Structures are given as structure tokens and as C-alpha cells.
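Worked example 2:
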Amino acid sequence: MAVTARPPYSRRPVVRVWAEAMRIHVTVADQLGDHRPMTTGPDILRLSIVRPPPDEGLVEVRPIVNGRVVPGGVGGSRYLGAGPRHLLGQDGLLHATATPHEVRLAWSGCGVEECCGALYVTVTRDGDHVVWAGWRDPSNEDVDLPELRFTAGQYDAEMLRAGEDRSWEWPAGAVARLLEAGLRRHEDWLVRWDCALEGVLASRKEPDRIHVVLLHPRDRADADLPWLQFGMTLPISSDPPSDQAEHLEGRLTAGDPRAAAEVWGGSHDAEQLGYPWPPVDPLSV
């Protein structure tokens, strides 16, 4: 079974490895899966943030529409909600605009969507309404969920309420969120060192550290060219998250991030880029 869309013999990126290492399975009894409209009026959205114990799974957002969990089990797949860090908040992906945009709402199995699936929906602001439509799963052509139409006022109010709730966030998670936002503002720094920021990761199982993940080279329009994934593990203290994020941002952007990082993944011919191979296993760091 294919587990990655990378070229043959490539090592899976750490983002996917992390999802695989910490996956959980949740059974939802009442799910939006019968493909029928649930109400004749506007749909009602509630965004529930589920925070199981660290050893039992990840924090996830479960959209509840008209009292029923979305997506739950659809087409034989069991989905897990995406995390609140990127879905909610001021710049969260679930914010609706007049320009349609696709949102990865949930994932399944090992976390590699080409293998085990992920659920996407297109979010659009249509006048006084917000519409969720165009559901798809790259690994499941049978997904057929109904269009959902919310009043913009109710949708925006629920997004504001859920986005202001940070009770789920732990200190290292806050540092990771703030540091990622800060690093993305340094576009010139990333361009200078021919890198793209894949993300800043944090796990509740590791409250004393975060992980910065970069891709090199920056422009990978030609998928046949060698590429590398760089990673670095940074310690987290008891200092305020904002102070730590500011300090780490200044430290990282002062020079070439590749010099302080290790090779965590890449293509089978990545040695052509002048770095050691095989890569370090990030789960052993």
C-alpha cells in the first residue's frame, strides 16, 4: 500500500511521521453520514474542541451541525478532526470569504491522505450566508455529503467564540504557534537560504520541546529534483510563551537555519545537495 506521494525510496516527512506516531481512533455515534439535508432552514454550526489526555490522542475540532457531528464516519472511513491551531483563530482556515477556499477538515489512519484519507470542504461566503460544499477525500471517491448553508451572523459568532477559547493550548503549543507566525513573516530570510517553512510542531507528550521543520530547496516545481527536509528540536522553558517565541525567532533568523538543523527526510538522491544521508530519525531525537 502506498504511504507517500514522494518519489520512490524517499523518507516520509516528519509531519506525516508525527501524525502516524500519535494517531487515535474515535467512535462517533451520531454522524452526518446519511447524505440528506438535516433541516429545512439554515444550518446551525457549533465547533467543539476535544482535548483527550496526552497519551490518548490529539486535540481536534469537531464541527457539529444541527446537533450532529461532521464528518464522523463517511464512506467506510473513520475521520479525526483537524487541530484548532490552524482552523480557528484570527487567521483560521475556517474563516469564510467571498473567494472560495478549500479546507482540510479531518484526516484518517496514518495521516498520509493518499493512503488513508482526509476530508476537504470548500468554504465560501455567499452574501448573508456561509456555504460548505464540494466535499472530497483523495482516497475515497464515494464521499457524497450535502451542501451546508449557515447564516453568516451565526457562523461568524461561532468562529469568534471558538477562536477565543485557548483553554486547550499548552505552553509549548503556544510557543510553536507564535514562533511559526513570526517565522512566516520573515519571507526574505526563507528566500535567502532557499528554504520553505513546513511548520513548527508541538506535542502534549513532549511539553518541554518543539520542532521546527524546513524544506530545501524552496521551489520544488520539478518533483524529480532532489529535496531535503531539515528539522531542529528546541527546548521550552517556563518563561512566558510570547517571550520565548520572540527570542527563538531572533535566534533562528540571524543566520542560515540549515547550519543548526539536521536532515530529517528527503528524496533518495538528496546527497546531491551536499548533506549527509541517511537522515536522522526525528522520533529518536
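Residues 171-184 form the longest helix (14 residues). The helical segments are 14-21, 84-87, 113-116, 152-164, 171-184, 187-192, 241-252, 257-260.
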